From TrEMBL:
InterPro entries: Glyco_trans_2-like, Nucleotide-diphossugar_trans. It comes from Luedemannella flava. Pathway: Carotenoid biosynthesis; staphyloxanthin biosynthesis; staphyloxanthin from farnesyl diphosphate: step 4/5. This is 4,4'-diaponeurosporenoate glycosyltransferase. SUPFAM superfamilies: Nucleotide-diphospho-sugar transferases (SSF53448).
Amino acid sequence: MIIPAYNEEAGIAETLRALVHAPDFGPDIEVIVAANGCRDRTADVARGFGVKVVEIEKASKTAAINAAEEVATGWPRIYLDADIALAPQAVRALGEALATPGVHAAVPRPVVDVDHSSWLVRAYYDVNAQLPVFRGRLFGRGVIAISRSVRERFDEFPDIIADDLFLDAVVAADAKREVDVPVRVPAPRSANDLVNRLARAREGNEQFQAWARAEGEPQQLLADPVKGSSSTSWLRDVVLPAPRLWPAAVCYVAMTALAARRRRSPNWTPRAGWGRPESGAPEPAGEVR
């Protein structure tokens, strides 16, 4: 398991405690924290849990993953966001899914944690969580498990923001599985945090689409290419069939528009919206339901 971490001193302990301090944690689960561009004690805190730690100067999630890959030995390979608490039972459930013939990627069932979020953020996710673009895909979970054969299809992760879109695209649609293990994905606390996250996601989406259009070898990797998002899906597929969501739709449109505007700001960088939300880490996922 590889956990890229950028300035996660305040929260990495919660994530690691849920994993390595669990009674059923064992040597079959390899944990590598890839601290990248950190200016805090993320690496020291991680070492305190007895896990492998890789440090690089560059603040880049994909560069951190590539550095960790050089020392990783365990299979299947699991990539976990540093703000996601995952129990050993969930890790093994993902591994068991990949043991099924024909399955080469597995993800848990996402549950967006809005317990500490403002009403604007809650309203946004009332719509976002139901978008059909997430169905049958690997992104938006904070954790992805892939088989060794998938990992051997490419040399390293490309230098793009959306590593989850990349993994989703290189695995064929019928080779993906969602395991019925809930994982809590922490939502931003404030509307401002949400706008930053959405701006970064929009940048990542466009960056991925540009990479996917490139000629040559990358195109050969795309077993299930992700199409550009529909600008009307939120209305056609989510809001119109459920009139109760009309008030939430106003918030959804407003947050989306503000994110597009912020991304055009000359002072904005993709690093905005990166890192652990103020709401903190959720309870660890792991109970199979």
